[in-house]
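Cont'd.
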Amino acid sequence: MNPLSSPVRTLAVLVGVVALVYPAVTMTSLRLDRLSSGLVLIFAVLGVNLITGRGGLISLGHGVFFAVGAFAMAKLIDIGFPVLFAGIGATVIAGLFGVMLGLPALRVRGPFLALITFAIALAFQPVARRLPNLTGGVAGLRADTSGFDPPEFLGIADHAHVWRYGWCIVVAGLWFLAMRNFNDSRIGRALRATADNELAASSFGVNVRVVRITALAVSGAVAGTGGALYAMVHPFLIQTEFGAFLSFSIYAAAIVGGVGSIGGAVVGVLVLLSVPTVSSTIGLGDNESIVLGAALVVITFLAPNGLWGIFSSIERKFRRSERVVDI
Amino acid sequence: MDLLIQRCFDGMFNGAIYATLAIALSSIYRSTGLLNLAQGEMALFSGYSALVFVTAPGKVGVSFSLAGTTLASKYLPGHPWPIAIGILAAMIVGAVLGVLVQKLVMRPRILKSSLAQINITIGLLLLINGLIVWIWRDSTRAFPSPFPNEFDDFIGIAGARLRYTTLGVWFVLFAVIGLLGLLLTRTKLGLAFRAITSNESSAALVGVNVDRTIAIGWAIASAIGALAACLVAGALVVEPTLMIRLLIFAFAAATIGGLDSPAGAIAGGLIVGLSQSLIPGYLGVPSELSLLPAVGAMTLVLLIRPYGLFGRKSIARV
């Protein structure tokens, strides 16, 4: 679909570009890094978006893949990988975790799979605390990305934070493209079929196991990339940051944004980033989970397709004259 | 030998708590097909309200004064109440909370899809936990034990200590199971409840008020959950993260036991509780990781016998 096919879309693209460039120009190093470290949650949200929205498998444990990506990044740099390859390695490792933890998904259905992922989300932090070799244990771990500086010709040598922010945006763009293509690929379509009716899909020749495993690998990998970038913009990693509530927040963001379409992941992470402000504005202080939980309940009632579902139904009204049949 | 018995006793205490919570979880699951991930937080809210009922206003030790105690002492006659009454009152709070949750958010339309169910229960988990932290702050508080729990309140058996608290929670567990059994088999409400469990639409056709019966089911389950929270808080302390870990153990107990019988819940609770106290002791697994065997066992059971070790296999047409 052409991104400029309707006035609403054109406006959205313009607003999006301005919104992406504005913080890079105006923010201080500290604030921009903090913004980036929040924005990278979008990768984990994208992972939930794929597996829950397309695959119909509920994952309450994507914070685990995010954390695995972050710690793997730090550890790979530590043993001598260049930053870029460490990031790719972290993505692959998180993808393998996705496969491993997703194996129950081949047999266990619906709420019980959600229960298993819920348990994994809870179990991660105590396990990470007991593995000081991999995660630094209670002391934490530092991802040393100091060698990863902006190249000379960009002329932003003293603006490393903009360089890091730029990487987050570019990698996010690449993953969005990859996700869109994956959703339209043979496996992506088969994944949707297995979510709608597993038996029917398999009788049409879809290999449900292969499709699910692939989707879980991709879903874990994208969250792992997010973790790797997180380690870049927020180099000091400690297991207490990756508790179960991170996983639940990621899930809540994915659902509030809308899991039907990858655009929902953007909305979801924006909601997640604005929750602290909303929370302190209405006098709840730093109790962000009240706002997030309430949003999740309300959205489930009022807009089963999330906020993105609301936006796209508004946008469709503007395009009605084109007689487009949206499938 | 005495160490083994001691560990078994410790495991039995946990087992009884898990079994109690598992009964609450499985009774909601059987009537509505919902795994209530927010059950622990609902129970914890009731547990905190029990603490409000039994605490005199003013500073508690070195920590902040407990929110709500001033209000409670103003409007509740005879406040602060003895712990037994406090727990009963907390069970009523739990029951009201259960009905509220069922009436407000667990609408039949929502209960149809498992995605919506999980969304709602996770949303409630975040919401209620946030509220607890907001109201009562993120700190650990002592909770009076309903049973004699001094240093020397135990029966010595072969050198091991069987604490009165352990006996107490087992007594409560059997009382809960007995009362629930009487309710289900001897009353009209129980008959309606069983009818809904077996076939909701047929039950509605023969005149069972499905909505009201399910609401009562939620009230009972939440009251049992509140009881479990008070019992465990009485043996330990109360803090905002108390129930979320406990919930996983209880879910493990419920799935291992098969989600459909009190005997299964007891067996599941014992398996989880004993493995939690024996495995770290004998296999050298640190006790913080005791969550892992429970999660592993739960996953295995779900993979191999999805209807639980003691459950009946249900056969469905596709």
